């Protein structure tokens, strides 16, 4: 992820935790896009994710980190697939604006629910 992407996320009015989650999700999307070149927009399967991760020097020599990273990638894959399904596009065709719009909608929905529950 480059500085422009981080700046774009940080410029949103999202709460700090939501911006952090958005940065992680955007980073996972970038990683999936690097893994899945030629996959017709589909997310790489778990075996391809593992193979790609094992080729990364920072991950290959740390089995505990690899396990943790694989869990995070699996969770991100579910979230990205759900968003892609709702938008009717392949997950690897998602853009940063898609992620930001979804995060803002989720926060807006949460705020509406909190105000509706308030006495």
Query: What is the H/E order?
Result: HHHHHH
What is the CA-CA span between the terminal residues?
Answer: 43 Å
Unreliably modeled segments: none
Number of strands: 0
Report the β-strand fraction as a percent range.
under 5%
Number of domains: 1
Please provide a written account of the structure.
The chain is an all-alpha fold. It has one domain. Helices cover 74% and strands 0% of the residues. It is built from 6 helices and no strands. Helix 1 runs antiparallel to helix 2 and helix 2 packs across helix 5 (63-87).
Characteristics:
single chain; 119 residues; mainly alpha
Outline of the structure:
With 119 residues, the protein is mostly helical. The chain has 6 helices and no strands.
């Amino acid at each position: 992820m480059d500085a422009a992407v981080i700046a774009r996320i940080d410029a949103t009015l999202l709460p700090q935790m939501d911006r952090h989650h958005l940065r992680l999700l955007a980073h996972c999307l970038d990683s999936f896009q690097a893994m899945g070149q030629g996959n017709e927009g589909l997310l790489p399967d778990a075996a391809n994710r593992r193979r790609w991760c094992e080729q990364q020097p920072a991950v290959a020599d740390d089995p505990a980190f690899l396990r943790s990273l694989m869990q995070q990638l699996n969770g991100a894959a579910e979230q990205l697939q759900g968003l892609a399904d709702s938008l009717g596009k392949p997950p690897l065709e998602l853009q940063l604006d898609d992620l930001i719009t979804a995060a803002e909608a989720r926060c807006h929905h949460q705020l509406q629910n909190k105000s509706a529950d308030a006495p």
